[in-house]
Design a protein that fits this description.
The complex is a heterodimer of chains A (188) and B (148).
Chain A (H helix, E strand, L loop, with lengths): L6 H14 L13 E2 L4 E3 L5 E3 L7 E7 L4 H17 L4 E7 L5 H11 L5 E3 L2 H6 L8 E5 L4 E7 L4 H12 L2 H4 L14
Parallel strand pairs in A: 4-5, 5-6
Antiparallel strand pairs in A: 1-8, 2-3, 4-7, 7-8
Chain B lengths: L1 E3 L7 E3 L4 E4 L4 E3 L4 E10 L4 E3 L12 E4 L4 E7 L4 E3 L8 E4 L2 E10 L6 E11 L1 E2 L8 E11 L1
Parallel strand pairs in B: 1-5, 4-14
Antiparallel strand pairs in B: 2-3, 3-5, 5-11, 6-10, 6-13, 7-12, 8-11, 9-10, 12-14
Classes of the chains: A alpha/beta (188), B mainly beta (148).
């Protein structure tokens, strides 16, 4: 029996498949990387966080929110990365997309023990990064300030480890990453 | 008390068609009387919204509120939530999935003008699947009524 599948049905199926099991792509070749849009925002302590000031470092730029369960799983991984790799020219920057602002975000940052800069995102920043429609969305930015990898939705800690090892320069970091205390048994 | 189920095929779509609220048919109520309306909600397979009593203080609950009018909402009755485990959460979450119904009980003002009208409500929710979450949304819900 032949069944006809309409285009809207096909598009919906593809979208849902993408949502339920995002492809875990690794870092892009350097020739395909585009410059990460610069921004300047205040962190919880009032300090300015300007992305271009991180030039020369690898940055894991994570868009998240307190109400996002998958984001909450990743945050301990990022705390672990920050602790293990900060001396190798690496930093995580968290961008909270909470509408309630610091009132909601500060207690969360404190409770989770987030050891990296966290700023409040806005629509303008979201648009700069292509329109952040769902969370978590994470960009790995290389030392030249170019986007080496993008992950939309939750991916495994192993995926991040591989990306960071590649973008940081392989050998230097290979021994420092691995299943850390922050991995709470999510997808790997 | 009169109960009228959704009849119209038109739908209110929200957030990339994840949650569909079927518009309810007109509530028929006598002056000074009571009625209830059932909002039929259909959530895309694979997604969940937090229940009205989420398991975590940071999670955003499903919430239905109604603007004041000749019909006063006396109670919003949410369905019994499901307790589901997700790979991203250490503890099970209190959620709604699939099709579910939220009931609102109304009382008509004894001096309410007879005839048709419409109440407006706001439905707030926040949807996720196993891997990703969408920002909280508030959509307007319209409830036609007829006071006899």
């Amino acid at each position: 029996m032949t069944r006809k599948i309409s285009i809207p049905t096909l598009v919906t199926a593809v979208f849902l498949a993408a949502c339920s099991s995002p492809p875990e792509r690794g870092a892009k070749p350097e020739s395909e990387r585009r410059t990460a849009p610069d921004f300047s925002l205040k962190d919880a302590t009032g300090q300015t966080v300007k992305l271009s000031d991180y030039r020369g470092k690898v940055v894991l730029l994570n868009f998240w929110a307190t109400w996002c369960g998958p984001c909450k799983l990743e945050i301990p991984w990022f705390i672990d990365f920050q602790r293990k790799l900060k001396d190798q020219g690496f930093s995580v920057i968290g961008v909270s997309m909470d509408d309630e602002g610091w009132e909601a975000v500060k207690p969360f940052v404190s409770e989770e023990g987030m050891n990296y800069p966290v700023v409040l995102g806005n629509e303008s920043l979201s648009q700069l990064y292509g329109g952040i429609e769902s969370l978590p969305t994470t960009f790995i930015i290389d030392r030249e300030g170019k986007i080496a990898a993008v992950h939309i939705g939750l991916v495994s800690k192993t995926r991040y480890e591989k990306d960071l090892e590649e973008v940081l320069g392989g050998v230097r970091s290979a021994g420092n990453l691995g299943a850390g205390a922050g991995d709470r048994g999510g997808p790997r | 008390m009169l109960v009228i189920w959704a009849l119209a095929p038109a739908i209110v779509e929200a957030q990339g068609n994840l949650l569909t609220v079927m518009p309810p048919a007109s509530v028929q109520v006598a002056r000074g009387g009571s009625a209830e309306a059932k909002l039929d909600m259909r959530l895309r397979a694979g997604f969940h919204v937090n229940s009205n009593t989420p398991a975590d203080e940071y999670l955003i609950p499903l919430r239905l509120t109604w603007a004041p009018g000749p019909l006063k909402a006396t109670e919003v009755v949410y369905p019994k939530p499901e307790t589901r485990s997700y790979s991203f959460s250490q503890k099970p979450l209190s959620v709604y999935t699939g099709n579910f119904v939220v009931v609102t009980r109304f009382h008509a003002d004894p001096n309410a003008p007879a005839g048709p009208g419409a109440l407006t409500g706001k439905l707030s929710y926040q949807a996720c699947n196993e891997n990703t979450c969408f920002p909280p949304r508030t959509v307007e819900v319209r409830l036609p009524y007829n006071v006899k």
